[in-house]
Amino acid sequence: MKTLSRDLSWLRFNARVLQEAQSPDVPLLERLKFLAIFSSNLDEFFKVRVATLRRLTKLKKKTRAQLGRPRRELRAVLAEVERQQEEFGATFREQLLPALNAEHIHLLNEAELSAAQRKWVLKYFRENVRDLLSPMVLDETMHQLFLKDQTVYLTFLLTHPHGKKDAPKHDRVLLMELPTKRHGGRFVRLPDEGAERYVLFLDDVIRVGAAELFPDYEHIEVNAIKLSRDAELDIEEEVSGDLMAKIRSSLAKRATGYPARLLYDPELPKKVLQAIEEKTGISTEELVVGGRYHNFRDFFGFPDFGEARFKYPAWPALPHPTLPRTGSLLAAIVGQEHLLHPPYQSFDYVPRLLREAAADPRVSAIGITLYRVAHKSTVVKALLKAAKAGKQVTAVVELKARFDEESNLYWAEKLQRAGARVIFSPPELKVHSKLLLITRREELETVRHFAYLSTGNFNESTSELYTDHGLFTADERLTREVATVFDFLADPLATPPELKYLLVAPFGLRASLNTLIDHEIKNTKKGKEAYITLKVNALQDPGMIARLYEASQAGVRIELLIRGIGSLVPGEAGLSDNITQRGLVDRNLEHARIYVFANGGEEKIYVSSADWMTRNLDRRVEVAFPLLAENTRAEIRQLLNIERQDTVKARDFNNEFIRAAAGEKPVRAQEATYKYLKGLKKK
């Protein structure tokens, strides 16, 4: 079966991010941000995926054979990374720096400073930087050097001591952490000169001040390095024991994890590199040539000079057309279902609903799944308020959400102290579903459930960037089954429930998807219209890819809208003739998952938290929920159709832009989506 590997496919996605940095139609500072996103993505890729591949290459030969060819995959991955790194550097040097210069913004290095600027920078160094520096000497007295993860270090090679030109050469190698956080950022704005504006890396401020830092030496070479460490947590796969303690222990180990990549300046002297290898124990295979500067994610903090034209035009979050701006949301949900579409529409309806539930004397219980929450979470604060008000609050907190473990530990402990019931999943299972359930006593002591089911996290911060869909509903067909899912989460060793409407992984989603695909295959053989439209972040599972190939060969039309990993190869003769693929990368991060099946003319639409990856289908609790109301199906269909028509930011499987035909007006889907939702009138 022909497929593209998960890791090479992911690198294709990051190449699409780099395309945005290269695109002249993207505002200038947004292009810099896409460089920052590319860099941040690649750091995580090395910390997780490359580190995992390196682990696999060290297994016994027989074991490696069962896992494919990790050594070959690692070579291919590193070769593609090297190619992209070169393109990244060229984009910065040959496109973005000239574009900045054209706007009278000059990102200088220390050699380009005028005499007056150098004098100003030296003064700035003395007053704001010098006291933040702590150099370490790499000599025979240092037996081991520990480098922090994702931290830029500057190295110094000092030669020719003053007054000893004829003496034997005495070199010294030193290293220090670049004090970005303590300094308050990576960039320093110099005084403007008329219309011209100047910026300097903090690195170069230190290069200017190096002579004062080491006055006893005539020649000083300053270079940069950065280490990325293996970020995988080793947690024993057992239900017993204190999971919170295990997570804390593993987080501590992550900080000292095995090196995954040491990026170094190509001008770094061999003597310095050898000293670093010797003191850290880093092997040659972890060495990767980078550029002069590392941690380009710091460009998120590049000065904006107060000019709006350097950024995307603002799209203020829209009020919802059918949810009330004031008054009871619970009452509004009883009357009809409502779809919410962050970031185009305000996410505040969710914490507002929770605050209302916390204050409502008839609300008896609130259940929620928390995978990633904001640093200052209004969602969790509302839950704390509800718990303190005597509501029965149950929070399923996923402690294994990568890079959010520490934050989730913090909120879990806060909830426990407030009296909430906090549930953790066992180590081998992640709860990735996005569910909220509110239980309320109605008149005559009847009980009504209200639910919010979503593709996105309960996170106000990411809701401003990630495109998601959420459903507010009081439909008993759905709320009853959401309650059943919470019962399962309270006891994951119990017999998995049988559900009619929700498709829930790991015990039903895969089988249900296979049944839906089978139905399309049967219909096309009967001469009925048969199609599948699949919008996901990632399509990687071999079993599902095989089923889509089978459906294509039977004549089912399949349209894939994939933002990230796409291992299926579309358009292959005799294999995937009936499959097309496109992916959208634009100002907002596409995050929603939607599955559409023709179903013989009675279209079925599911909205989900689950990508079609093996981990989502087999090792996570995921939920796909059907849109049962005609108006919500029509709304999602319209939004999906807008994305299908994109001819500005959509790429095909080979990362080629999909353009409008001659005479057709280009469609930019995210812009068109905002306009469509803005045009919805309050009913």
Automatic annotation (TrEMBL):
Keywords, in A-Z order: ATP-binding, Kinase, Magnesium, Metal-binding, Nucleotide-binding, Phosphoprotein, Transferase
Domain (Polyphosphate kinase C-terminal) ranges: 329-490, 502-657
Domain of life from the UniProt record: Bacteria
UniProt-listed Enzyme Commission number(s): 2.7.4.1
Zinc recorded as keyword: no
Residues noted as binding ATP in the record, renumbered to the chain: N41, Y466, R563, H591
Cofactor requirements of the protein: Mg(2+)
Stored InterPro entries: PP_kinase (IPR003414), PP_kinase_C_1 (IPR041108), PP_kinase_middle (IPR024953), PP_kinase_middle_dom_sf (IPR036830), PPK_C_dom2 (IPR025200), PPK_N_dom (IPR025198), PPK_N_dom_sf (IPR036832)
Annotated Polyphosphate kinase middle domain residues: 117-302
Keyword Magnesium: yes
GO molecular function: polyphosphate kinase activity
Domain Polyphosphate kinase N-terminal, residue spans: 4-107
Residues annotated to bind Mg(2+): R372, R402
Catalytic activity: [phosphate](n) + ATP = [phosphate](n+1) + ADP
One matching Pfam family: PP_kinase_N
Enzyme category, top tier: transferase
Post-translational modifications reported in the UniProt record: An intermediate of this reaction is the autophosphorylated ppk in which a phosphate is covalently linked to a histidine residue through a N-P bond.
Catalytic-site annotation from UniProt: H432 (phosphohistidine intermediate)
Family from the record: Belongs to the polyphosphate kinase 1 (PPK1) family.
Known role: Catalyzes the reversible transfer of the terminal phosphate of ATP to form a long-chain polyphosphate (polyP).
NCBIfam families membership: poly_P_kin, PRK05443.1-1
Protein name, UniProt field: Polyphosphate kinase
Naturally occurring in which organism (per UniProt): Hymenobacter aranciens
Gene name linked to the record: ppk1
